[in-house]
Amino acid sequence: MTASTDYDVLVIGAGPAGLAAATALGSAYRNFAVFDSQEYQLCRAAAVKDISTNYPTVTFIDTVVEIATATATAVNQMYKFQVTSTRGGHFRGKKLILATGSKDVFPNIPGYAELVHCLFCDGFEKNDSPAGAPGLGSLQDLASVLMAHHMSNKPLTIFLNGESPTREKDRKALRVAEARNCKVNHREIRLLSRNSGNGYVLVEFSDDSQC
């Protein structure tokens, strides 16, 4: 569609939340723009392409939003929001959706950043593979761990990476995970890499063992 600076809806973010909003808005035939900072995993590029192809009323704008403001001074004012990009562009919208998501903070494990896997993108397609969750931080977000366990047809292992839970909250979470048939591995991880044969993740431990 022809580029414009006025839209029914402005969507900031092209991650899972932003793309879900884009699908709903496209189905409703709303004229909207999605601001895409390009800071997402490559698997989402396919979803962006699908939405662009199937919904003619969407405009993806590859830029970072620097300022978002509410501009309405009257109840009947049509365009109530304005965003400014780092490139200096100004865009107005009747509605504004903040779908900026969250920033990944990876555990300090060599090889992890190259292997990180997005359940939103292809969790269903890979549900016949074993799953693993690294570090004590996994116990602090137990709901996500159990979701991964639910999505996998194979066992899920929590890798504590040489750490032991000291807080009662973490110990309780570990007991819950074990009660849900999650496995627990206490060994320290030295390296994560991709097995070229079957595509699985190869875990190398500090004691020279592997799994």
TrEMBL record:
<dbReference type="GO" id="GO:0097237">
    <property type="term" value="P:cellular response to toxic substance"/>
</dbReference>
<dbReference type="GO" id="GO:0016491">
    <property type="term" value="F:oxidoreductase activity"/>
</dbReference>
<dbReference type="InterPro" id="IPR050097">
    <property type="entry name" value="Ferredoxin-NADP_redctase_2"/>
</dbReference>
<keyword id="KW-0560">Oxidoreductase</keyword>
<dbReference type="InterPro" id="IPR023753">
    <property type="entry name" value="FAD/NAD-binding_dom"/>
</dbReference>
<feature type="domain" description="FAD/NAD(P)-binding">
    <location>
        <begin position="7"/>
        <end position="119"/>
    </location>
</feature>
<dbReference type="Pfam" id="PF07992">
    <property type="entry name" value="Pyr_redox_2"/>
</dbReference>
<dbReference type="InterPro" id="IPR036188">
    <property type="entry name" value="FAD/NAD-bd_sf"/>
</dbReference>
<comment type="similarity">
    <text>Belongs to the class-II pyridine nucleotide-disulfide oxidoreductase family.</text>
</comment>
<protein>
    <recommendedName>
        <fullName>FAD/NAD(P)-binding domain-containing protein</fullName>
    </recommendedName>
</protein>
<keyword id="KW-0285">Flavoprotein</keyword>
